[in-house]
Specification:
- By secondary structure, the protein is α+β, with helices and mostly antiparallel strands.
- The chain is built from three helices and seven strands; from the N terminus they run βααββββββα.
- It has a seven-stranded antiparallel sheet with strand order 1-7-6-5-4-3-2.
- Strand 3 and strand 4 form a beta hairpin.
- The two termini are about 20 Å apart.
- The mean pLDDT is about 95.
Length: about 140
């Protein structure tokens, strides 16, 4: 299994960024068209992104510094619901928050597509959490 890492600096406090990882409205402001989130350990994590039903659960919720969810696609053989893990670490910096993302447990065949997705969505998180409008999302997964 492979791991993908990235980070982005956001001009907002960790408490603000945390809300964009744990509330339905916050999540859909930057990623997905639909979200039903229960940000408690064992609580459901459901986000629909570009026609894909991302499903998992919250594994760790440590306000406002860390969120860990299981992640996968409902009905997928390559990456079934809950098969991988996404960790967001929110680190206070002078300019706001550095979000350190680690997506682990990815099959090698899934790394390229998820790297592309995170490269698209993390900047949208930065816009939304800083109080901007990330706009309508037109992202689609890479074709093999």
């Amino acid at each position: 299994m492979a791991e993908f890492r990235d980070s982005i600096d956001i001009a907002a406090a960790p408490e603000t960024v945390f809300e964009y990882l744990t509330t339905d409205a916050g999540m859909t402001a930057w990623m997905g068209q639909y979200a039903v989130l229960d940000p408690t350990p064992g609580g459901g994590f459901a986000v629909d992104i570009a026609g894909y039903a991302i499903r998992g659960e919250y594994l760790h919720v440590e306000p406002p510094h860390r969120v860990v969810v299981s992640w996968g696609v409902a009905g997928s053989e390559a990456l079934p619901a809950g098969a991988s893990t996404v960790e967001f670490r929110l680190v206070p910096i002078d300019a706001g928050t550095r979000v350190e993302l680690t997506h682990s447990g990815l099959p090698e065949s899934e790394v390229r597509g998820h790297a592309d997705g995170w490269a698209h969505f993390l900047p949208r998180l930065a816009v939304a959490a800083a109080g901007g409008d990330a706009g309508t999302d037109h992202w689609h997964p890479l074709e093999d």
